[in-house]
Amino acid sequence: MEKIQIKSLVIIFLVFIYTNNCSQTVKTPSYKSPKVNIDINNEENNKRLSEISDIPIPSDSTIDPEETFIIGKGEDWMGKLSLINKANSEEIYNFFLKEMKKYRYKEKSLKKSDISVLIFENKKKAIFIKISKFNPGKTYIEITATHVN
Hints:
By secondary structure, the chain is an alpha+beta fold. Helices cover 29% and strands 30% of the residues. The chain is elongated and about 80 Å long. 16% of the residues are buried.
């Protein structure tokens, strides 16, 4: 008789542990804007931006130096360019949609939402653009460039 009671208690205990460890909700991390410490002066900012000649850069953009890593310059640059702009994300999205065509890039993929993503490509390079709201009245832009082939 003791075996039956112990067996029942063990089964109840296991069911209790199983049901308490199984969550009914899926937890996903929320997007947090990166911390930005802008210690770059306008002259250095403009000089670095002028070294990139094969994509359009929204006017009045400021480089986030801690999140920017670029190799090369002119049309041969590659890496990640992180920018902050005072225009809203909708304006930045439309800017790239319109201006990338002038630089002979073709749309490969577009996703417009709270965090918008645009992908463009030409014969030499693929450009990935991520646009997100940064602070009230500011937009964070991440441009990643990589060579094709």
